[in-house]
Amino acid sequence: MAITLEACPDAIYVPAHIWTPHFSLFGAFSGFDTIEECYEELTPQIHALETGLSSDPAMNWRLSALDSFQLISNSDAHSPAKLGREASLFDIPMSYAGLYGAIQRGEGLRGTIEFFPEEGKYHFDGHRKCHICMSPLEAESHGGICPVCKKKMTMGVSHRIDQLADRPEGLEAQAVSTGLLDILLPVRDLAALERAEQNEGEVTRLSERYGVVGVHMFCPSTPDAAAHCRNFAPLYAIPEEAATGTSNGALTYYLYSRGLTAAGAENRFVQGEKMGKPSEILSRLTDGGDGVKVQVGGRAVLALRCELL
Q1: Residue 152 has what DSSP assignment?
Q2: CA 239 → CA 170, 203, 233, distances in Å?
């Protein structure tokens, strides 16, 4: 990589198939648990990672260490019959400069087209020649040893992500209510939250179809808050709202049910930043004999003092 960048400072370097067990960045046999261990002083030159067939975005979002990187997904050029199983979506000028901006800075990177990660031959643990394929839990119950040949099995992508992840599994979109029903939609980082663009027509149709107020998009577990949020309710003529207590109350329970906050803890939610109207919403959840309760509040600023006669 150093030779390439010396020859062409505008070259794009993307580690490919980062979870493949043999010889990839995070593969079970690579010996690297962090990007810095692998690339050392050249790590700042890497801005994107190609995630491979055997993982999907939700699996990769479990590693906070990947939050600052663009995640792309490509098909192997050496398998023309399978080309397009996975692809990256770009809304960019048809130029190298456009591609550079998307991969290095996320400008115009709209996401990826994903195949089922279970179809990847390295998704689960096993031995191909022994026709053995096991989930991480099954593999651990066998001590990682193949029941056929009695040799160590190849650790798959799912198991390897479990080893390195610092976030729980299962941050999926879900309709939750603590008063008003909203679709809670997690995104992987603050950059994704910032660049999200609402299709008001589609969100309105979605809200009507599922009987919800709208969509509450959030990035969880940031250094300064339980989550940063954006709220969209075009069905009720609210393109975006700066502070939504009911939605963050529902989000409090969502995070609690996934182990991302504890009963009795004060949770801070930041909303309205994209609108230039930042707000701070506080919540606390209790889980006692009378069930789960969520309190939502905030801080007030005295704006006007008057006396009614």
Answers
A1: B
A2: 28, 10, 6
DSSP designation for 241? E
Closest CA to 180 of 241, 262, 266, 257: 241
Q: In one letter, which amino acid is 111?
A: G
d(CA 248, CA 277): 17
* Of 256, 243, 244, 266, the residue nearest 291 (C-alpha): 256
What CA–CA distance (Å, rounded) separates 253 from 297?
15
**Rounded-to-integer distance, Cα 173 and Cα 113, Å:** 18
pLDDT tens for the chain, 309 residues: list them: 999 999 999 999 999 999 999 889 999 998 799 999 999 999 999 999 999 999 998 899 888 888 889 999 988 777 788 788 899 999 999 999 999 999 999 999 988 999 899 988 899 999 989 999 999 999 999 999 999 999 999 999 999 999 998 777 767 889 998 889 999 999 878 888 998 899 999 999 999 989 999 999 999 878 899 999 999 999 999 999 999 999 999 999 999 988 889 999 999 999 999 999 999 999 999 998 788 999 999 877 788 888 888
Q: CA 245 to CA 298: how far, in whole Å?
A: 9
Beta strand 181-186 with 215-222: parallel, antiparallel or unpaired?
A: parallel
Among 236, 185, 216, 182, which residue's Cα sits nearest to residue 57? 185
The region, left, alpha or beta by phi > 0 then psi within -120 to 50, assigned to residue 116 is beta
- Classify 291 in phi/psi space as left (phi over 0), alpha (psi -120 to 50) or beta: left
The count of other CB atoms within 10 Å of the CB of residue 265 is 13
